[in-house]
Design a protein that fits this description.
7-stranded antiparallel sheet, alpha/beta, globular, 38 helices
Length: 1113
């Protein structure tokens, strides 16, 4: 059936900020959908609160609303735009929950814009645990025995019936949030209590335990003509008990018999038909008992899921793109396969290779968190690798993770039997890196059967690891390594670094010998059909096979190195810049070649660049891509400055190997990264920096700290995301830090800086071409210096800086760009203290604020940066209309809207081993996973939107609890007084209440959680912690204080986390929140598209359009 002609415009609901369990794979899906719908001539209206993704760039939709994804705000967009339909199946759980709320409120019916992609009945059948049990039964399959509960008493009774251990699964949550295994009543009270709270319907399912069973997934698509395709089967290496997002996964499934696979297929097809998903994809999860083959259907997602992105990249079958086409009426047999350009989408993909995905974790950011992997997802990113066999794909994936110790190794003596037994016992608990522990246990003589009995990992996978160990032994013991033995090792995924370790020689020597012997990889093509038809998309992976499939080309190519797996500190913002560079350089006449290993992102879509190499971002792998591309045609250069620290770390070594790096040179990058060299740049430019020193030992660090005075900020050199940063107030803490810091970076020293108290932090992104500088934007941080810039909220244009200060920022940035030798982007962080503008750091690369600045000012900075790197001047880009003809982002007109970026933090995902939440304090080490943007006519409204998008909003009435450190008591008086004027009740701990009373502010005294002698009599018997848990507190202001009160502060923040109450931990954010509450009292929030904002701002001079952006005013 051809395209529906009754749909002229569609509202696409995005997934909001990047959070654990809902990351940029949904931006990838949504971006694909927007592109497809526009190609079909449909007007696309998009709502998404995330500025970091390319999906919210104005060119991907006709009207782009960076607004909170709440039913109320989305209704305002529907009322204004009047779309014909709503597509909510590509924005994860956020979009789905919002769409269901709109349906239940009658909004979709009122405006006559039905859901497409999946109907409400299908969503409810798939998502509602009880209804889904009926679906499974009617499909002739089996569910785990289970009971639906809505209260704790029901949970306790159900557990008696099902017998412990039981699985707790909340309804309508994402990434397993609130789920877990309860082994006894205490566990059940804790896990089910959280689950009931996190479920929007206050519903959990208690299920019989299927711990240790094998887990599989099928990615299935169906159209309204009842054509069904199974796109991909995926097998979890870890058994049931570990969330599939935290497990190593393999595609296609490798340990099923054909009969078992056909049974899963039959069940999957029966379920998608029974649920009634008839215009899109869904993901179905199964558990198989390894002892008797019993199959249980765990759940289905009636939408594009996290696994859909992996399945798309693994097969070359663009699930989201095809789902969008089916949503507007096409059937599978009418949609052509892009890769073969011959077969229809109703042809199931066939794989002649193996794909392995490995998750990336960030437990180092939460040192007190329990690192046991459970059914609640904790990973922050993932890497994928493709190989001709499992061992090759696994080893490539492990080295793609870029985590110290993530690859198999053969260091030190072989473990003896006792050590091997201890290693195996440790591997019984699933953790990040468990596979390496298993490899070491097998190396020590444990056999695959023993390892299977303890870990539940299938014996076939364990046997493959034994094979890797056997080849390692051959390499290590061989009198000389023959070309045949070397080729065998490379075919099983061994890196040059691993071979060097085994032979006791440097990696570079291995590479030289290997190349001299002619042992080089070839590059194969992902073609969806196992080479049955010709492939037209150059989507490649390396293998030590026979035939190379890279075609020759004529145009000069630019190789762009991506950012690898997402992690805290290096997220989708860097992928954004890489994708922009690819688009801009293709338009400028270059072929672009993307190298990346992250399956979640737009950069690894097969049609983003002229060529895609799905490869690890290591020196060895990048050099091989460079070699094959140099043989294919001319190379204009390699870009390393857009993908964050990962490609930057390779710059020097690549240049040493003769690779042409374009843009800022590796030597210039070093000038900014190396403390001594950067100090000289600052001195020559006459720019002040906080007093600082460098230390290689504890004694040196203490000497530096005593010279410059406490407090000091200490950190390892060459880090991203504030890794290992701490503010230190005394000798003892500093001694502990330096002894620990050697793990952060063994070759690099510890940096000690004077910490600037009470400083305003300022962030700028600039472009420099060697002659002229373009100031992209000036951001003022809401929190003071000391909170990592990635975790701090910031405003653009700056909320309180005057023209004189902005001019000083501009002059300082220009001197830095000239002194470092920047060609392209640079980010500089300043601190303004006592009217002195200090330079904190300069990074000559794309920063995480580039997308936010681009959206706030309507100027595509990453596009311009890519062009400058390849020789274009700022004057030329002004002439072409890429940059404004006059002025820049530092000179915004007075009517410019205010944009606020707010960080989204994952504290509720991490618990300590005793089940208590990890502390939610902010500091110099970055902990946020994503961000949102609020944009409106003034700061108060923009900040209110940012809080609504990030945390569900600020209270407009109720009781506020205040407990602040002595240094903050003066700053809190005005905001607390204003809250009282606005009708809020104030509760405070005794010390804070005294100060409030003396200043004429009425406050009730609350009992501290750990009441001490001398504390005032409280007005309520209950502790403040209990009042929070009882739901009586609307907002909590708690700033960190001295050691003695730390326990109290932690307990208050933990209670806030548990009860999901608004928590503010800095007085600056508190003042901003009060401004926002006041702004909300004065008027309601309204919605304006980015396109309207840009027309009203008109920096690029494309016609005044004044007044078109007045929708929000």
């Amino acid at each position: 059936m051809p395209k529906r002609d009754d749909i002229k415009s569609v509202l696409v609901i995005g997934s909001g900020p990047i959070v654990i369990g809902q990351a940029c794979e949904f931006d990838y899906s949504g971006t694909q959908a927007c592109r497809v719908l526009r190609e079909e001539g449909i007007r696309v209206v998009l709502v998404n609160s995330n500025p970091a993704t390319i999906m919210t760039d104005p060119e991907f939709a006709d009207a782009t609303y960076i607004e909170p994804i709440t039913p109320e705000m989305v209704e305002k967009i529907i009322a204004k735009e009047r779309p014909d339909a709503v597509l909510a199946t590509l924005g994860g759980q956020t979009a789905l929950n919002c769409a269901i709320s709109l349906h239940e409120a009658g909004v979709l019916e009122k405006y006559d814009c039905p859901l497409i992609g999946a109907n409400v009945a299908a969503i409810q059948l798939g998502e509602d645990r009880d209804l889904f049990k009926g679906v499974v039964e009617r499909s002739g399959a089996e569910s785990a025995r289970s009971i639906i509960c809505h209260t704790m008493d029901e949970c306790l009774a159900a557990a008696e019936d099902l017998r412990y251990p039981v699985v707790v699964r909340p309804s309508f949550t994402m990434g397993g949030l609130g789920s877990g295994f309860a082994y006894d009543e205490a566990d059940l009270r804790r896990i089910a209590g959280q689950g009931l709270q996190y479920s929007p319907t206050t519903e959990v399912l208690l299920e019989e335990s299927i711990l240790g069973w094998k887990e599989y997934e099928l990615e299935v698509m169906r159209d309204h003509a009842d054509n069904v395709v199974v796109v991909c089967s995926i097998e979890n290496l870890d058994p049931m008990g570990v969330h599939t997002g935290d497990s190593i996964t393999v595609a296609p499934a490798l340990t099923l018999t054909d009969r078992e696979y056909q049974r899963l297929r039959d069940i999957g097809i029966a379920i998608i038909r029974e649920v009634g998903v008839d215009t899109g994809g869904c993901n179905i999860q199964f558990a198989v008992n390894p002892r008797n083959g019993r199959i249980i259907v765990i759940e289905m997602n009636p939408r594009v899921s996290r696994s859909s992105a992996l399945a798309s990249k693994a097969t070359g079958f663009p699930i989201a793109k095809i789902a969008a086409k089916m949503a507007i009426g096409y059937t599978l047999d009418e949609v052509r396969n892009d890769i073969t350009q011959e077969t229809p989408a109703s042809f199931e993909p066939t794989l002649d290779y193996v794909v392995v995905k490995v998750p990336r974790f960030a437990f180092e950011k939460f040192p007190l968190a329990d690192d046991t992997l459970t059914t609640t997802m904790k990973s922050v990113g993932e890497a994928m690798a493709i190989g001709r066999n499992f061992t090759e794909a696994l080893q490539k994936a492990l080295r793609s993770i870029e985590h110290k110790g993530s690859s198999f190794h053969w260091e030190g003596p072989r473990p003896d039997p006792q050590q091997a037994t201890e290693l195996l016992a440790r591997a019984a608990r699933p953790t990040d890196g468990r596979i390496v522990t298993v490899q070491q246990a097998l190396r020590g003589g444990i056999d695959a059967e023993q390892a299977h009995a303890v870990t539940g990992i299938d014996p076939w996978f364990l046997d493959q690891i034994v094979l890797i160990n056997t080849i390692a032994d051959e390499i290590e013991s061989a009198a000389r390594v023959t070309p045949e033995l070397l080729r065998l090792a490379k075919r099983h995924g061994f890196s040059d670094a691993q071979l060097g370790q085994l032979r006791g020689i440097p990696e570079s020597v291995v590479r030289g010998v290997r190349q001299a012997l002619g042992v080089r990889p070839v590059f194969k093509t992902v073609d969806t059909c196992a080479a049955e038809f010709a492939a037209f998309t150059p989507y490649h992976y390396s293998s030590y096979d026979e035939e190379c499939e890279v075609a020759p080309r004529e145009r000069p190519a630019v190789i762009i190195l991506g950012s690898g797996p997402n992690r805290i500190g290096q997220g989708v913002e860097f992928d954004y810049s890489c994708v922009h560079a690819s688009f801009a350089l293709r338009d400028a006449g270059y072929d672009t070649v993307m190298v990346n290993c992250n399956p979640e992102t737009v950069s690894t879509d097969y049609d983003t660049s002229s060529r895609l190499y799905f490869e690890p971002l290591t020196l060895e792998d990048v050099l091989e891509v460079y070699a094959v591309e140099r043989a294919a045609g001319p190379i204009a250069g390699v870009i390393v400055q857009l993908g964050g620290q990962t490609p930057l770390g390779l710059a020097k070594a690549l240049k040493a190997e003769g690779v042409p790096i374009v843009g800022t040179s590796p030597e210039a990058i070093d000038l900014a990264e190396d403390r001594g060299a950067f100090g000289r740049v600052l001195a020559e430019a006459g720019l002040p920096a906080p007093k600082h020193g460098t230390a290689y030992s504890v004694e040196e660090a203490l000497t530096v700290a005593r010279t410059i005075g406490y407090p000091v900020l200490v950190r390892p050199s060459y880090v991203l995301g504030g890794r290992g940063m701490e503010i230190v107030y005394d000798d003892e803490t500093l001694r502990t830090y330096v002894e620990k810091a050697t793990t952060a970076s063994p070759e690099h020293p510890v940096l000690v800086d004077r910490f600037l108290d009470d400083a305003v932090e300022i962030d700028v992104d600039v472009l420099f071409d060697g002659e002229e500088m373009y100031l992209g934007g000036v951001m003022e941080h809401i929190e003071e210096a000391g909170i990592h810039s990635g975790d701090s909220a910031c405003a653009l244009p700056p909320a309180t800086l005057g023209d004189g200060e902005i001019e000083r920022v501009r002059e300082s940035a220009l001197k830095l760009a000239q002194g470092i030798g920047v060609r392209g982007l640079m980010n500089v962080q300043f601190a303004l203290a006592q009217d002195i503008l200090y330079v904190l750091e300069a990074n000559p690369r794309a920063s995480r604020t580039v997308p936010f600045v681009a959206k706030a000012t309507g100027v595509a900075l990453a596009n311009a940066a890519a062009r400058i790197m390849l020789g274009a001047s700022i004057a030329q880009l002004r002439e072409e209309g890429v940059l404004p003809r006059v002025g820049d982002g530092g000179q915004l007109p007075s009517h410019a809207p205010m944009s606020v970026k707010e960080a989204v933090l994952p504290f509720h995902r991490f618990r300590r081993a005793d089940g208590a939440p990890v502390d939610s304090l902010l500091g110099p080490e970055m902990r946020s996973t994503g961000e949102v943007m609020g944009i409106d006519k003034n700061f108060g409204l923009a900040f209110a939107k940012s809080q609504l998008a990030a945390y569900g909003g600020l209270p407009e009435s109720g009781t506020v609890f205040v407990s602040v450190a002595n240094r903050d008591k003066r700053a809190m008086l005005f905001p607390v007084n204003r809250l009282q004027d606005l009708g809020f009740s104030i509760i405070a701990t005794s010390g804070t209440a005294d100060v409030l009373h003396r200043n004429g502010i009425e406050a009730t005294v609350a009992r501290k959680i750990t009441e001490r002698d001398g504390d005032h009599e409280a007005d309520d018997e209950r502790s403040i912690g209990q009042m929070i848990l009882d739901g009586e507190i609307a907002m909590i202001i708690n700033t960190p204080t001295g050691q003695s009160a730390r326990a109290d502060g932690y307990a208050i923040r933990a209670a806030a986390n548990t009860a999901d109450v608004t928590l503010i931990t800095t007085v600056q954010e508190f003042a901003a929140a009060v401004q926002a509450i006041e702004a909300l009292r004065k008027g309601t929030l309204s919605v304006t598209s980015l396109q309207e904002h840009a027309r009203a701002l008109d920096l690029l001079g494309r016609g005044s359009g004044a007044g078109t952006g007045q929708g929000a005013r």
